[in-house]
Amino acid sequence: MTNKAIALAFDELANLMELHEEDDFRVKSYRNAYISLRKFDQPLAEMTDLDIKNIKGVGNAISTKIRELVDSGHIANLDKYREKTPPGVQEMLKINGFGPKKVGLVWRELGIETIGELWYACHENRLVEVKGFSLKTQEDLLRKLDYYQKSQGKLHLDVADELTNFVCARVGKMLPGAYIAPVGDVRRRCPIVNQVEVLVGYNGEIYAIFNDETMILEREEGRKFQVTLEDGSTVYIHQCFTEEFGSKLFRLTGSEAFVKTFADTNAGIEFRGLRSEEEIFQKAKATFVVPELREMAHPVLPAPGKSLIEQHQLTGVLHVHTTASDGLHSLREMCSYACELGYSYIGITDHSQAAFYANGLKADRLQQQWDEIDALNAEMAPFRILKGIESDILNDGSLDYPDAILDKFDFIIASVHSNLRMNIEKATERIVRAIQHPRTTILGHPTGRLLLSREGYPLDWDAVFEACQKHGVAIELNAHPYRLDIDYTLIPQALSYGIPISINPDAHSLSGLEVVRYGVGVARKGGLTADMCFNTMLPKDWKKPA
What we know:
The chain is of the alpha/beta class. 40% of the residues lie in helices and 13% in strands.
């Protein structure tokens, strides 16, 4: 066992003990041991107990633990603290600059137990309510979380997009005339990206793009280059000749199953050396398959006369939070920006009163918001502001607020935010009861998942879809890259029940309104067409069963 591994064990023990608010003296002694041992040159595993005791910062108790670790690979006391600390909380301790005291605060006061929940709490501005946190602290933590997430391999779609766009722009600047496109998971709009890949069509050497620390060439295999960016992210660049760009783009975009099935179906046809993808489908006498649908071996294409949803077809934006609950911008600011983006209406859905952690609105504050909406509607017409709410689905499936208040909203998004650890029976019963409420308009982020962080609760989807169909409730595709919930694989089944999908940003800031593009990409992946998208319709066309 290396000195570094031994030192890190004491660092971990100190962090866990501080997290659990143990004696400061013992925590400090383990911290000092870490500092001393990590710099020590002589292999500790080869030293006698007496020699170890004589190291600065190491006494009898620590020497005993070193011997225990060297001989058994464990420290019993460390194992004890690991066992009583959720794995996700232990992971938070690995974030540089986010110490045990702050981790303990968000764990105990907000119930946050994973990196993803922490990131989303920052996104919802929940940390600023905790003593010791400010908006600046929260923003700094967000940056650290982004870096940490990027270093873990798999990426959320928005982060992968940023990396892809950076690489494409840099390559385009340095190789004028090159053909450049994202491929793989990013181009297929996968909710989780395993690796970022870019195809470059260029008839010459491309080593010039690796001439500084912005893009460092780590490994080359044929014409595939593994590159490390300044922030530590890994990107793969594939090179081909410009005249074969279409062939390579096709092969590197589709999943292995899709590409193999297409090749097998069209055996005997030569697809190499084509400049555009369209030529491939023309040679195969096949309907062009958009990149998003090239996931399955046999993709389901839209019915004749229909096409997949496009962002410009969204007429309104729903699921929007303001400073009235946990948003960063005011009602006026959110509405003005939505209008600038070209929408004809916005649905304001601050949190309901049960969401105390998000400054949920009680009845008196609701009336204040409604009065403000009335004034803005008169001022901003014909742009329309809808009076909505994200009503918590309570543990028994009822909606937050009495019916007398619920009846006053223009629309209601019903969402689960608490008691998420449910079995399939409990979760389905709770969701179905909320759907059955006559005022529910949209079922919000239906599984409560946070990608790469928290699995959604299990549901009997046939029961959920049947209830939505019967009661005229739409299902949200929450466009936030951490959610993208409902999963795209369930969209075809929802559509078979005639249930519209609402692509909503769950926006807590002005920039949050723009994440609908991720929802649109994933909706297309699920085969959503414009006529089955809830918010391509105007509010006057929303219909509930009689």
